[in-house]
Design brief:
The structure holds two protein chains of two kinds.
Chain A: H1 8-28, H2 32-57, H3 61-90
Helix pairs in contact in A: 1-2, 2-3
Chain B: H1 16-35, H2 40-56, E1 65-67, E2 72-74, H3 76-103, H4 109-126, H5 130-148, H6 155-186, H7 191-201, H8 207-224, H9 232-239, H10 242-267, H11 272-296, H12 300-321, H13 324-351, H14 367-370, H15 372-386, H16 392-406, H17 410-436, H18 449-467, H19 470-475
Antiparallel strand pairs in B: 1-2
Classes of the chains: A mainly alpha, B mainly alpha.
Chain lengths: ~100, ~475
Amino acid sequence: MFEGTVPLAHYLTLSAVLFVIGIVGVLVRRNVIVVFMSIEIMLNAVNISLIAFDHYLNLSNGQIFSFMVMCVAAAEVSVGLAIIIALHRNKPTVNLDEFNLLKW
Amino acid sequence: MEPIHAPESIDLIALAPVLVLSVFAMGVLVLDLWAGKNKTLLMFVSLVGLLMTAISAFAKHPLPAFAFTDSYIVDHLSIFFTCIFTLSSALAILLSAEYNERKGMKAGEYYALILLCTVGMIVLASSTDMIMIFLGIEIVSICLYVLAGFRRDDPVSNEAALKYFLLGAFATGFLLYGMTLIYGSTGSTNLFKIAEFIKAEGAPSSPLLLMGIVLLVIGFGFKVAAVPFHMWAPDVYHGSPTPVTAFMAVGPKAAAFAAFFRVFTEAIPNMAANWEILLCIVAVLSMFVGNLGAIMQTNIKRMLAFSSISHAGYLLIAVIAKSAMAGSGLLFYMLTYAFTTFGAFGIIILLGRKGEENLEMENYSGLAYKHPVLALSMTVFLLSLGGLPPFAGFVAKFYIFSAAIEEGFVTLVIIAVLNSAISFYYYLKVVVFMYMKEPAGEFQISMTPMTLFVVIIGIIGTIELGIYPDPIIALTGLN
């Protein structure tokens, strides 16, 4: 096995930065699809941490966990896109601000 | 890297409730192909499945039993919670039958989704491994996203589903990141091993672990709708089909609390000095924002949503107290909450009719003159939610509060009791509308048998658990 020369902290920082990018995307962007993609970035940022921990601490649970995360993310994508399509049929827009029947 | 072995403790009997219910859920999906327009058969099969699940929950002896290399546990908490979940799903299915008929929601997968959601709840309440807890939460959430938007042609229902989905998935990200950081800093996803590690290290204050705990609080806070992570609750409760609202106010919330309680009392009790204050703040905020928010509402579903936020605050007190008694209190509280909530939503459904939901409080004006029994039932449910003796809500609050006082959280309990007093303002507001205002128009109440049946079960449960709670309290493990 090749020992990485990149320290664990770098991977964790990358993952944290990606996670924050995801959060900012969810909070700032108003396009439903982009918000949705930002959430996926958050989940995949976590996957990086999981794999990095596994590699550097000689563990194996995290790899299983990251597979589970991918499965769940795929299921979530299918349900999420279905919801967006159902919504689009009633109201042809993807702008979050126009969904205002219910007061936030 | 250590090699990965297949789990040496595969134990299908421990997993029996999950397996039975999964089979029934898929059976319902297949049956739907032959069932045609009439969904009564599907409903009946679903109810039988839930009953079998509740029975199979008792299959494992002796307790507590561990399975799948300690990632799954059958203990008192999980069995009792399984019974609460099957009860609440059965009540939700009974409530749905006539509502769906009226709204033209004829799809059979509705029942399969409720059953699958229940599978997720059982997994959530029985897991002692963070991977399993994550899976359980996602099974529950994904089913609920679909159920919330089940009225596909109704923009309000769509919008509720979208908001629930986006905020739910967002919260999942936080929860997952919290789990990862805890995994990274303790080296295990198993709750018991995490606890061992923390004990051996003497409550380490590594920033990764602390960050992980904070993120866990955020993630779970979203799932149980605690302030400041509650924004989705009023909208989603308002927009979802009413039986689904009742369902998500009870079952998934109980499941999330089961996992919340298990993680915080099994895995990180030795870090309590760090998370106690955080949870106290969340609990106090939930109670105040929930109760004050409910006062402002004129829509009864939104009012009950805010009321459920304040109930999340009361339930958090049980997590903070983290004793065995608090666990029993949590069980008892969720059971009474199931009876009262389903009863109240049953009446809301009875008052609605095709095309007009009648969700505003004015629609309840003078109900007592035309339908005194319905008005009286609603009064019982609301007073029980508020915690007035002799109804069940009082006993439930009493147990959680006394558990907290035993652990020394006196200030927190005083704040909670004050909040119960505030909550009577808005619960009684509905009562005032029903008893003291003139009827605005004719009530067109269709006394549909199954919805009435749910209301009657709700009434019996609320009064029985209030007047003679001893047998059930013995079952919750409180002596």
